[in-house]
Amino acid sequence: MAMSATELETYLRQAFPDAQIRINDLAGDGDHYSCSIVSEAFKGLNRVKQHQLVYQALQGHMGGKLHALALQTSAP
């Protein structure tokens, strides 16, 4: 079962309520997304740490319900 863009955004909003989030379904299959997240939570963190926060927000669904996620993260 794939993850909908709405479900993906729900996980991200719970972890990053202040964020500007843009999600694109790359293949139209609910398995391959690109996502841009701008959040204060990323301030002072390198890109690896930022992406780790995103993966934590997905609560273990990366590699399961969600196959591929191209991330672009930054602080405002």
From TrEMBL:
Q: Which Pfam families match?
A: BolA (PF01722)
Q: Which InterPro entries does the record match to this protein?
A: BolA (IPR002634), BolA-like_sf (IPR036065), BolA/IbaG_stress_morph_reg (IPR050961)
Signal sequence annotation: none
Gene3D superfamilies assigned to the protein according to its UniProt record, in alphabetical order = BolA-like
Q: What keywords is this UniProt entry annotated with?
A: ATP-binding, Nucleotide-binding
Can you name one GO molecular function term for this protein?
Answer: ATP binding
Task: Name the family.
Answer: Belongs to the BolA/IbaG family.
Protein name as annotated: ATP-binding protein
Q: Report the source organism.
A: Acetobacter malorum
Q: What is the lineage of its organism?
A: Bacteria, Pseudomonadati, Pseudomonadota, Alphaproteobacteria, Acetobacterales
